[in-house]
Amino acid sequence: xxxxxxxxxxxxxPDARYANLWDSIVVEPSIKDRLLRSxxxxxxxxxxxxxxxxxxxxxxxxxxxxxTGKTTLARGLAYQLAPLTTRRKARFIEINPHxxxxxxxxxxxxxxxxxxxxxxxxxxxxxxxxVVLLDEVESMVVAxxxxxxxANPADVHRATDAVLTAIDSNASALPHLIFVATSNFxxxxxEAFLSRADxxxxxxxxxxxxxxxxxxxxxxxxxxxxxxxxxxxxxxxLEQVAxxxxxxxxxxxxxxxxxxxxxxxxxxxxxxxLTIEDLMSAxxxxxxxxxxxxxxxxxxxxxx
Amino acid sequence: xxxxRFIAAAPVRSASEAWRVVSALLAGTLERSSSVPNGSVGxxxxxxxxxxPALIAGGHxxxxxxxxxxxxxxxxxxxxxxxxxxxxxxxxxxVPGGASATDAWTLYLPSSGALDSAVKTAVKNSTHLSxxxxxxxxxxxxxxxxxxxxxxxxxxxxxxxxx
Lengths: 304, 163
Prior knowledge:
CATH superfamily of the largest domain in chain A: P-loop containing nucleotide triphosphate hydrolases
Largest sheet of chain B: 5 strands, mixed
Structural class of chain A: alpha/beta
Low-confidence stretches of chain A: 300-304
Number of domains of chain B: 1
Radius of gyration of chain A: 22 Å
Largest sheet of chain A: 6 strands, mixed
Oligomer: heterodimer
Number of helices of chain A: 14
Strand order of the largest sheet of chain B: 1-3-2-4-5
Number of strands of chain B: 5
Largest interface: A-B, 25 and 22 residues
Number of domains of chain A: 2
Strand content of chain B: 15-25%
Radius of gyration of chain B: 19 Å
Low-confidence stretches of chain B: none
Distance between the termini of chain A: 44 Å
CATH topology of the largest domain in chain A: Rossmann fold
Mean pLDDT of chain A: 87
CATH architecture of the largest domain in chain A: 3-Layer(aba) Sandwich
Number of helices of chain B: 7
């Protein structure tokens, strides 16, 4: 299989396309600090000490509900790391997990092994510090203890083995390589994979100040095209909207602004005319819609 | 890390063509390094131009293979023939580790029975070809902590000054 089918992105940092990703995610500052420090520490220690001394695999694991910014943080990490390296350069590679799995016997294992022990090592052969994103990693490292052989082909089990073996061998052979794995389903991930993570960071849904910050950031970003939205971002009543959206993930909070705009034809034509009332109405609609979805999914799953 | 690459010879391709594939793989791997000039690997392999295909045709690279060794690089190249050649999954991409190859790389040739003396004569004056037994693993990279450091500590300190 061609490497291009398994690799979604590969680029060197600094790359302007990645400049704002890190800052665009509003989370508790300690989350970003831990992720960046763990990457820097891993590069520092693994370059100078053997694996037997550090026990570091160069694997960071981000977990939490969908829409909280895990993937974006991982995508932004290499850009943040570049100025901290001696070469002022870092590389970012994103794996396409769906390009690895195959229904054909033995193919998943072969692709995983080929990718992690041949393609990736070749791409980092120049020793540039590199962040490899394994997004939705649960599709690659299925929990073998939870999976039934009838529901999960043996091939998938062997693919999990292949990932673990590759991470072990790359841990010492490629000290400039860091994997960042993300998942919404920690229960579906193999325990041996989780135990290899040097750091596991929970990325939760934002609290009310977090929601407020996301709302403000979204409105301010849109104010470059529609200046009145900048004033709306500074209105104290925005906090009421944030309270109404508490518990929602960052992605939903951002989408609340466009949801509010589509509430009236006038604001579709002129988005700068958006009001606090529009935002409150949108928040109410989203809450109702979420409750409906939860009821439907509860009924489908036989739970409530 | 020890790696093995398999190349198909007859009936997939002739011994001469298979030797060209092997040579291209070795050159493509080593010449990614700034320490190994473009075209230099081909020149170093020139004494084997006639013998390489003969080694393949005689099946001498089937079980033992050629072994390329350098700092952090240990590659075995086995050239298969007959049924085995039909089943081989070739990976002709440059081998990881080649980009940091040094000018001290060595290609070890296996024992080849009747061709042994011809091979020894061919490699006699080469600094990169050898008929000695290859080392079991690649020599470790020199561990010079300060020089190998990937992180700029002053840049790292500046993180603490950011608001």
